[in-house]
Structure formats: structure tokens, C-alpha cells
Amino acid sequence: MSDSEPAISIPNRIQSLRQIWQLSAFAQFMWTFSEAITSEDFDYDDFESAIVQDNIEYLLDLRLILLKRVSSNRHLSLENADEYTRRQFLAKKPSENPFSDDIQPKSFSSLSDFHKARPSMLCTD
């Protein structure tokens, strides 16, 4: 959760996430194709918990796995995934870019709950 967002309890944040249809679609996609995408089963509860408990490592790892599956760039790593994701947003969906187009882009950890999940969801479009 970013500094500009008011503090919201974890149950309320989970309830807010469950109102976003795109997350349901993402969860269904991951449940269906997780074995082809990763070496482990996808657990939506883990994904949801990672968002509301700010488990950035889990979300970054998931995003990197998905980026590697949809990208021809085989040099992707945790270190350059933010910049790569930002460039992809600027090229394909600039109006939806959560990282901003400023010289100093926002970091992944500063994004809202929805925007932390958004890059992973877009990899499944």
C-alpha cells in the first residue's frame, strides 16, 4: 500500500480485491495454466495474501515468471523487471501505466494493491 492511501484493515483490503473481476479472471487463468507456466501450483489465497500483506518478493517472483513466458527478452531478472514492465506499459497501454512516465518511475512496492496485481494480470491478456 502506498503512503498516499489511507490505512485499510487486511480484511477490508481482501474484500476490496475480491470486488475486482480482473483478479478473478487472473486467478482462473493461473489455476488452469499454472503447471504450464510455473513448476508449482498457483494458490490464489497466497496471491491475495501477498498483495494485502505487502509480500513484495512473492509478487515480484510471480511477475517475473509471467514476464519470461510472454517476452522474447531472455535477459529479464528481478533487477530489470520494473523497467521492462514500465516500458511495456508505455509502448502498449500508456494510459494504464502505474509506474508513471516520469524520469524517476514509481517502484513496484509503492503501487496500490490493484496496481501490484495489474502487471501479472496483463501478462495473461
**What is the CA-CA span between the terminal residues?**
25 Å
According to DSSP, the number of beta strands is 0
Biggest sheet descriptor: none
User: C-alpha Rg, in Å?
Assistant: 14 Å
Q: Output the helix-strand order.
A: HHHHHH
Number of DSSP helices? 6
Secondary-structure-based class equals mainly alpha
Give a short overview.
The chain is an all-alpha fold. Helix content is 58%, strand content 0%.
List keywords for this structure.
globular; 58% helix; 125 residues; mainly alpha; single chain
Helix-strand blueprint:
Layout: H1 10-17, H2 21-37, H3 44-52, H4 56-70, H5 81-92, H6 113-123
Q: What does the model show?
A:
The chain has helices at 10-17, 21-37, 44-52, 56-70, 81-92, 113-123. With 125 residues, the protein is mainly alpha-helical. The protein has one domain (10-123). The two termini are 25 Å apart.
